[in-house]
Amino acid sequence: MKVFVSYARKDNDVEALREIERQLKTLLPGCTPYIDDLHHDAHGDRYYGLKRAFVESRVFVAVRSPSYARTRWTRRELVWAGVSDHKRYRLLREPDHDLPVYKLISEQDNAALTA
């Protein structure tokens, strides 16, 4: 199952993205996450690479962070998710942990992604 991961680059460095990828593989067993900064072909067009990865996926995961809904890229990805039949989740970092621990919340279990 291919998973499109939407995130704000400003709030997630490569180390954080690798941890998100690792934890998603545990939270959604059998998934193959697409994380742009980890999987993008540097020689290809970023927009078309993102769009292709989104179309090929069946699951959309928004990594919530302070800057998430403030970038044009993440707003665009939210629009794509809103008009698609993708299963939608939010990934939230749990507070009060020494190491990053994430919690996956299904849109069906909670309010809309932008809440």
Explain what you see.
The chain is 35% helix and 22% strand. It contains four helices and five strands. Strands 2-1-3-4-5 form a five-stranded mixed sheet, sandwiched between helices. Mean pLDDT is 88; it is low at 110-115.
What is this structure, in a nutshell?
The protein is α/β, with parallel strands linked by helices. The protein has helices spanning 14-27, 36-39, 46-56, 72-82; strands at residues 2-6, 32-34, 59-63, 87-93, 102-106.
Question: Layout of SSEs?
Answer:
Blueprint: E1 2-6, H1 14-27, E2 32-34, H2 36-39, H3 46-56, E3 59-63, H4 72-82, E4 87-93, E5 102-106
Parallel strand pairs: 1-2, 1-3, 3-4
Antiparallel strand pairs: 4-5
Q: SSE order, as H and E?
A: EHEHHEHEE
Overall pLDDT metric: 88
Number of strands: 5
Strand order of the largest sheet: 2-1-3-4-5
Low-pLDDT segments, ≥5 res: 110-115
Number of helices: 4
Task: Briefly note the structural class of the backbone.
Answer: alpha/beta
Distance between the termini: 26 Å
Which features characterize this protein?
115 residues, alpha/beta, five-stranded mixed sheet, 5 strands, globular, disordered C terminus
